[in-house]
Structures are given as C-alpha cells and as structure tokens.
Amino acid sequence: MTSIQTGTKWIKELLEGHPDRIHDAFRMSKRIFVDLLHKLEADHELQGSQRTSSREVLGITLYILAQGGSVRLTKERFQHSTETISRYFSAGLRSFLLLSVDAIKPIDRQFRDILAEIRYDPRYMPFFKDCVGVIDGTHVDARILVEDQVRYIGWHGTMTQNVMAVCDFNMCFTFALAGWEGSAHDSRIFARALTDDRLHFSHPPQDILINLFTIIQLFVFLNVYMFNKTNKCR
User: Fold this and answer.
1) Is residue 211 a part of any domain in this protein?
2) Which residues in the chain show pLDDT less than 50?
C-alpha cells in the first residue's frame, strides 16, 4: 500500500460525511448505496473476500463506472493491486448484470391491462390504448481497443456505443440493448431486438395484429428525419 487511506476507510468516510461527497464519487445518495448493497448481496451474488468486504467491491465498481476511472487510478484510490481491482470490478459487473435481468422488464409481460396513465387521460385514450412504452436509442461514450475503434465512431465523430432502450409510462426501463457499435443504425438494432429470442424483447399481445415491417419502416423514417433536421440546423 502507498497510503493509509484504504478503500474501506474512504467508503466509511463517504457514508459518514457530507451527502454531496458520496454523490460526487458514486453518483448516488447514501441511502441508495446502502439499499443497492443489500439488494446485490441478498439476491445477486455480490460478495467480498476475507480481506475485502462486499461494500468495497461495490464501491470499486461504482467508482470506475461513475468516474470513468482507469484501473491505475482505482487501485490508488482503494489501495489494491491491479489484479484485485480488475477481479472485483468484474464481480461487481456480474452482480449488476444479474440485477438488470430482474429490474429491466415490464411489470406484466402480457400487457393485459391498459396503463393508468393512458386509461385516465383523454389526450391518449383511446388512441394509445395498445401502447406499452416508448423506444429510443442513445449514444454512450465508449473506451474501445485500437483495432475496433473505427466501427464505434458515431455521427459526431466520437467513439460511442449505440444503446436501444424502452421505457413505460412510469418512466421505468423495461428493455435495454447495449454494446452495439456507434456506427450501427437504430433500425438494425431494433430489428435484432425483434427477431432474436435470446434478447427477450417483450412483444405486444398476440391478439393485436402488428406489422413488424411497418414498425421498422416508421422507426427508420423517424431517425432519418431527425438526422436531416439536425444537419440543417448546423
């Protein structure tokens, strides 16, 4: 170790200190951090070791995600070796992946009921009574190996991954598909979500006839329209 300020001591200091400090470090409040820790420990296999607590494993993971920190900076912050930081970061990501399976999904996969936000709002009912959510794509900055960087360069000339997400009218995410290169078109990602059963994309009820090809065409049209509109505004 190069400092007496270990990761355990630092996290304890954050939890006992000013609320802004832990929010700046992990991008969440003390209560959310503690609740998340208990949830991951109980249901999603987050665990530490004899020398490192599960709380510190979560702290390492959140620090890298929130700060975009390198392993080198993180090992200095938490006073662990490069190998230890990499191992615990992988363990933390695995727990988050398990959490996402439980958290990012519709409340009712059969969509048997009309959402209250639609049913009781005359602006939407009955026109959107079969609407189950909203789909959109967003680009997230990515750190990519040199040999793969060209594929990840998006419209704005920076390296990104294209993420498609679906949210319901409660603003809760019900589906997310990440990892696509920034150069991939939204329609291509959407088509994969619709046709790849392994992704578990929630389809509308069987008794509602939907022409998927028409949906994809509309999705492409909207994206091309927004792209052209953006270019005209430059």
Assistant:
1) no
2) 209, 211
Q: Is residue 74 part of a domain?
A: yes
Q: What is the pLDDT of residues 142-166, one digit of tens each?
A: 888 888 888 888 878 889 999 999 9
139 lies in the same domain as 169: yes
Residue 20 domain-assigned (yes or no): yes
Residue 127 shares a structural domain with residue 197:
yes
Model confidence over 9-35: pLDDT tens digits? 999 999 999 999 999 999 999 999 999
The last residue of a domain, from among 82, 103, 124 = 103
- Domain residues for the domain of 25 are 7-103
The dihedral sign for the CA sequence 102, 28, 152, 106 = positive
- The per-residue pLDDT for 209 is 45
> Rounded to 5 degrees, what are φ and ψ at 203?
-85, 155
| Helix ranges, the chain (H) | 7-16, 19-26, 30-43, 54-67, 71-78, 82-103, 116-119, 186-195, 212-233
Q: Report which secondary-structure segment, H or E, holds 160.
A: strand 160-167
